[in-house]
């Protein structure tokens, strides 16, 4: 009779996954520091990156080293923030954000992932018009009318642009420059988001033909596995979305 993965094997897989997450977070902190100042009090983007790292249980020493790199030490000055646009299976629009010290390697990896899974790399601006950059805070309300009302009232009081309640979640939307204030206001109201950040949100989502679902999932998994890729946005309406 076959045996499942050993405890050691599962632990090694979990450690590898955690290391990959840390790699992405370290790059995000490095670039955020380089784009502003090394003091999170005066750099909202850096503060958000550090908060994300702390929630992933990254040590303060590791965070401090990443900030130091972003200040120009230890090769941090070579890091760049780049965006790629393209299409996946069934013409799904993709925006791929990356932090890299080697753009040639990164674009080659992204192009290979796209072409191998039935997509292609586009030119700058080829799909960006289908997305809007905004602050997004998602709360699990599970269809609870009282919970949805609490999020709605707190968000509107804080000046949100919109609140969308669907699929068991309430999503608060705001201008990117208002994101941090919105997040603090909702925390003060006793609300805890399951996801929060400044994102590229699709203006419309499109249904994916059944035969394209597996290739699309494989493509998204492959892009996420690339160390240089920090975020992938798409306009697909996946089964888990609704």
Describe this structure in words.
By secondary structure, the chain is of the alpha+beta class. Helix content is 43%, strand content 24%. The strands form three sheets. A four-stranded antiparallel beta sheet has the order 3-1-2-9. The longest helix has 29 residues, at 7-35. The radius of gyration is 19 Å and the shape is globular.
In short:
Helices cover 43% and strands 24% of the residues. It is α+β, with helices and mostly antiparallel strands and 242 residues long. Helix 1 (7-35) runs parallel beside helix 3.
Number of domains: 2
How many strands in all?
10
Find the CATH superfamily of the largest domain: YebC, transcriptional regulation domain
CATH topology of the largest domain: Alpha-Beta Plaits
The CATH architecture classification of the largest domain is 2-Layer Sandwich
The fraction of residues in strands falls at 15-25%
The rough form would be described as: globular
Number of helices: 7
Q: What is the share of helical residues?
A: 40-55%
Overall SS class? alpha+beta
What oligomerization state is this entry in?
A: single chain
Low-confidence stretches: none
Radius of gyration: 19 Å
For the largest sheet, list the strands in their spatial order. Answer: 3-1-2-9
* Average pLDDT metric: 88
How is this fold's topology laid out?
Layout: H1 7-35, H2 44-55, H3 60-70, E1 80-87, E2 93-100, H4 103-116, E3 120-121, E4 131-140, H5 145-157, E5 162-166, E6 169-174, H6 179-188, E7 195-202, E8 206-207, H7 210-225, E9 229-234, E10 236-237
Parallel strand pairs: 8-10
Antiparallel strand pairs: 1-2, 1-3, 2-9, 4-6, 4-7, 5-6
Helix pairs in contact: 1-2, 1-3
């Amino acid at each position: 009779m076959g045996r499942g993965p050993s405890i050691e094997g599962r632990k090694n897989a979990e450690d590898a996954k955690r290391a990959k997450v840390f790699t992405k977070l370290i790059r995000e902190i490095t670039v955020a520091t380089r784009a502003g100042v090394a003091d999170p009090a005066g750099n909202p983007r850096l503060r958000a990156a550090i908060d994300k790292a702390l929630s992933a249980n990254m040590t303060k020493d590791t965070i401090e080293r990443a900030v130091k790199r972003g200040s120009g030490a230890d090769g941090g000055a070579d890091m760049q923030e780049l965006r790629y646009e393209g299409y996946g299976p069934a013409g799904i629009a993709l925006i791929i954000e990356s932090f890299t010290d080697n753009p040639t390697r990164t674009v080659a990896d992204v192009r290979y992932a796209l072409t191998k899974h039935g997509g292609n790399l586009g030119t700058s601006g080829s799909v960006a018009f289908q997305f809007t950059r905004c602050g997004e805070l998602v709360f699990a309300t599970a269809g609870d009318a009282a919970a949805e009302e609490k999020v709605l009232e707190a968000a509107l009081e804080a000046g949100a642009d919109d609140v969308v309640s669907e699929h068991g979640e309430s999503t608060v939307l705001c201008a990117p420059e208002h994101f941090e204030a919105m997040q603090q206001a909702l925390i003060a109201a006793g609300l805890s988001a399951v996801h929060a950040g400044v994102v590229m949100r699709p203006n419309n989502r499109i249904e994916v033909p059944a035969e394209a679902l597996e290739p699309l999932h494989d493509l998204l998994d492959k892009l996420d596995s690339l160390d240089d890729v920090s975020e992938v946005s798409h306009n697909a309406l996946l089964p888990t979305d609704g």
